[in-house]
Design goal:
Blueprint lengths: L2 H6 L4 E6 L4 E4 L2 H6 L3 H4 L14 H14 L1 E9 L5 E12 L5 E10 L1 H26 E6 L10 H7 L3 H4 L10 H5 L2 H12 L1 E9 L5 E12 L5 E10 L1 H21 L6 E5 L10 H7 L3 H4 L10 H5 L2 H12 L1 E9 L5 E12 L5 E10 L1 H66 L6 H30 L8 E3 H11 L1 H7 L2 E6 L3 E3 L2 H17 L7 E8 L4 E7 L31 H11 L4 E5 L5 E7 L6
Parallel strand pairs: 15-17
Antiparallel strand pairs: 1-2, 1-5, 3-4, 4-5, 6-9, 7-8, 8-9, 10-13, 11-12, 12-13, 14-16, 17-18, 18-20, 19-20
Helix pairs in contact: 5-6, 15-16, 16-20, 17-19, 19-20
Length: 628
């Protein structure tokens, strides 16, 4: 049974994608989820299933995440072919080739609309239960009779005030008031106001069992029976001491914070309290999200999230991760005031006070919509480039053939040009031998200049021919003695060394290297000859050194010559590139280009270091020994 037969028997909808995100296969159950037949899906990009154009960014992001992490799972709304919406659970799994590049994806789709509706109903019920539990934990809730005596006592009240139920039930609620409030008859006045208006609310100092005071939020509500007779009061107390201290700290730092971030326009930067309510708002946030300060402060930050993120409980999840790990970071859709969406980079960081108590969160948002659209445009351009590259392959074959013909032409022309030069040299030498008449002194000079020019032309042609042949010759796999190589180069240069009275120093610490002996001799010979040529004043001093490195041999040829300007260092290895006139320093302009080509053929590297008036050093690297 092949892969397609196996997938056709799977009950879940499975779609196969190529590395670019195009559908290559869809099993029959895919039609039940998407509404499209497998034939309608194959050949289309996966964004075909996402609906609106702007969802293309999300599709690209999900493929990117699957490529990075192998598997990416998400939930959200999708539309069937009929336009009907369904809530789906989607799993993208990347398949890699031997080079760890993504070559395909599997895309598993599950319709979980019914389960999601049950989860939403359950979440609402759980939210009510959570609020109730938090109220019990964070609030002291108890009942008073009509005269202010305590009738009930919850765990929150015990935690805040320090009394157990047996210690406090039956006592008057004025137990919690300061001596100044008792003298002012504040407890009695609060009950009177609650009786008259239905409720009394304030913030103020209250006293715990141990005598310490705390800043409390107090709400007293009058309770009536069916005959509208006062039967008592409910009293809710919350300890706001820490919040009051935090508010003071925030108030003191607010001015510094505002001056730091208020004028930032590229990033939305704002603070939230520990529940996720917005308490500050900078200019960048106003520009990105569209809300003014007065419109947004006090709102829960979920106001920026799309419907499916709210149904998934995403805002609360992000705060939970930030609390546990210190930071939450992601990219995703967010909503502006005008209802438009933008692709945002979001970082939420938990903020703690000195006691390591969570006091809120900082949130930094950046609008990446334009950048994402540019990235997508770049990928589309790459696709066009790939198609063009395919078309160019056939053209490259034709160019390769033409290059072979050009090389053949160069060889033939170089050979044919040498023959007339040899003829010119031969006859001019015979003429020079026979011109002895003093009346023809000028003729002798002309003969000498003609021979010199012919010799230079022959040297140029030979070097050009040699240069063109270097690229076609394979480097022989032989071991070359370094001492023998250096000795042969020096022997070839003996006449030049004697003529210049040059002092050559050799420091060789290498036994052998891997390569072509003829080419390597010419490499050293050209570099030393170059050093001799560019010493215009005084006795030439040339030093050749070869040393072992970790996995190669490094050689250097140094001289005391005229040096090279810094701006010209990058030009020295260009063919026919001359930094001086022919009259100053004769040469063909090919010698160093040949050196570079020889080193390149041997898989090494060549470079130059120099300073005008202080000499030049050419470095090159070679393999020390043959590979096994």
């Amino acid at each position: 049974m092949n892969c397609e037969e196996l997938l056709s028997n799977v009950s879940e909808a499975v779609i196969m994608l190529d590395g670019e995100g195009y559908v290559t296969y869809a099993n029959p159950p895919a039609k039940a989820v998407t509404g499209y037949t497998p034939q309608e899906l194959v050949g289309n990009p996966v964004i075909f299933l996402y609906g609106s154009e702007e969802e293309k960014i999300k599709a690209d992001y999900e493929l990117e995440q699957a490529g990075k992490h192998r598997t990416y799972t998400t939930e959200g709304w999708r539309e069937r072919k009929s336009g009907e919406r369904y809530w789906g659970l989607f799993t993208l799994t990347a398949i890699y080739d031997n080079n760890k590049r993504v070559k395909a994806y599997t895309y598993v789709l599950r319709d979980i609309t019914e389960r999601k509706e049950v989860e939403i109903a359950l979440r609402k019920s759980e939210e009510q239960y959570r609020l109730m539990v938090e109220s019990v934990r964070d609030y002291g809730i108890f009942l008073l009779d009509a005269n202010g005596y305590i009738m009930t006592w919850n765990d929150g009240a015990q935690r805040i005030k320090g009394y157990s139920p047996s210690e406090i039930i039956g006592r008057h609620f004025s137990t919690f008031y300061t001596s100044d409030d008792l003298e002012d008859k504040k407890p009695e006045r609060e009950l009177a106001i609650a009786t008259q208006t239905g409720k009394y609310e304030e913030e103020g100092w209250r006293v715990r069992k141990n005598g310490s005071v705390f800043w409390a939020n107090v709400v007293i509500t009058a309770l009536y029976n069916e005959t509208n007779k006062l039967v008592g009061f409910s009293k809710v107390t919350r300890d706001l001491t820490e919040r009051r201290e935090n508010e003071e700290v925030l108030r003191q730092s607010e001015e510094r914070y505002r001056s730091l971030v208020e004028q930032v326009t590229d990033y939305g930067i704002f603070m939230m309290d520990d529940k996720g309510r917005i308490i500050s708002w900078n200019e960048g946030a106003r520009r990105i999200a569209g809300y003014e300060f007065d419109e947004i402060v006090g709102k829960y930050f979920s106001i920026f999230y799309p419907e499916e993120d709210l149904l998934n409980g995403k805002p609360a999840h992000e705060l939970k991760v930030a609390r546990e790990e210190g930071k939450y970071e992601e990219e995703g859709w967010r909503i502006r005031k005008d209802g438009t969406r933008f692709w945002a980079s979001v970082v939420i960081t938990a903020v703690y006070n000195r006691d390591r108590t969570l006091i809120g969160f900082s949130k930094v948002t950046r609008d990446l919509t334009e950048r994402k659209e540019s990235e997508r445009a770049l990928r589309e351009s790459y696709e066009k480039y790939r198609q063009l590259n395919i078309e160019l392959k056939s053209t490259n074959k034709e160019l390769s053939y033409a290059n072979q013909e050009l090389e053949q032409f160069t060889s033939i022309v170089s050979h044919d040009l040498q023959e007339p030069i040899r003829t010119i040299q031969s006859f001019m030498q015979l003429i020079g031998q026979r011109v002895n008449d003093e009346r023809y002194d000028d003729l002798g000079l002309y003969v000498k200049k003609t021979l010199t020019a012919a010799g230079r032309m022959r040297e140029l042609i030979l070097n050009l021919l040699h240069y063109s042949q270097l690229g076609k010759a394979e480097v022989s796999n032989e071991r070359v003695s370094m001492n023998e190589l250096l000795n042969r180069a020096m022997q070839n240069l003996k006449s030049s060394l004697d003529a210049t009275n040059a002092q050559v120093t050799i420091e060789n610490n290498v036994d052998s290297v891997q390569g072509n002996e003829v080419q390597l001799v010419q490499l050293v010979q050209n570099l030393v000859g170059n050093a001799l040529k560019f010493t215009s004043n005084g006795k030439p001093k040339v030093k050749i050194s070869c040393d072992r490195k970790s996995d190669h041999v490094q050689c250097a040829v140094s001289d005391n010559g005229i040096g090279i300007a810094q701006d010209d260092l990058s030009k020295v290895f260009e063919i026919f590139k001359r930094l001086h006139t022919e009259k100053e320093f004769p040469g063909t302009g090919i010698g160093l280009a040949i050196c570079k080509k020889i080193v390149d053929n041997h898989g090494g590297r060549i470079w130059v270091e120099s300073e005008q008036g202080k000499g030049t050093t050419f470095y090159f690297t070679l393999h020390e020994k043959a590979e096994a």
